[in-house]
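hey all, quick one before standup. I had two proteins in the batch that finished overnight and I want to keep them in one place so we stop losing track of which output belongs to which input. First protein below, input sequence then structure tokens straight from the run.
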Amino acid sequence: MAELLPLFPLNLVLFPSVSLPLHIFEERYKEMIGEVIVGKSEFGVLYADADTVANVGCTAKVVKEIQRYDDGRMDILTVGLRRFEVTRLQRDRTYLQGEVHFFKDEPIDELQDLKYQCLQLFQDLYESTPGHLPFADLEAISTEEVSFFIAYYSDLPLKKKQRLLELTNAEQRLVAEEEALKESLEAQCDQRQILQGNGHFPRT
């Protein structure tokens, strides 16, 4: 059965289990978030750019009201919860709503070796761990969550992050992330070699 969800299009891709701070200033979203806080409910975050709004997103729940301003603006901290696909849009409120159905990853083994390899590549590339969480904590959480953390905290293009969000297999997500991280690390190494040389790219 479809569920009606308030929708918040943003120029980012939210994943389950990750934190998202937001500054709420538009009247329609002050209204929406106010209702979400009172009802202790979720709202949907959809990736949007200048051309389109994605139809697959992730719900968020307000976990902390950081500050309320006199004019109704809010600073809030949210966390991603569930992925969903929009089946029908509704425009009868000041903000967008959608009928959605929720989906999960297919069950898989924990894939400890692949998970560790991706975390190590992330650390080599960014000189930190996803979300600056301790490496041991990241190794202890599920393969699915690790794949979400890597996708969210990486510098991958937003459209590529959106494709990762839509995958329903954590192994496929990690394999794609491993390939992307290796490519980024190789490009970083090539750039360092050029900067250590005469500053010119080699001719081909």
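OK second protein, same deal, sequence then tokens:
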Amino acid sequence: MHEISLLENVLEILLEYAESQDFTQVKKVCLEVGQLSSIETDALRFGFDVVMKNTLAENAELEIIIAEGLGICQQCKKMVNIQALHDPCPLCGHADVKVAQGMDMKIKDLIVI
């Protein structure tokens, strides 16, 4: 379950932010997870409290926003929605669609005190 290591990385970022931004508690973490990222949001929810236990983010609320998959068709040059990696262009059917959005996870917002 690589979601636990992703959450450990989130905690490291929170600790760095806390030091540089001078806050002591995280009340809410909003993560944006790409639809094409292969990250299991249920596993993130399950592991969040475990990873954040006894830290500045203990008892923090987790919000997850799904970023849609977008790609640029290399044939028709249009930006298109894609549901999975290697989906053909829904407009022209061409197989070469370069992913433009939806492969990553990022901290979108924090509420801290």
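Flagging for whoever picks this up: DSSP finds two helices and six strands in the chain. Helices lie at 2-21, 41-52.
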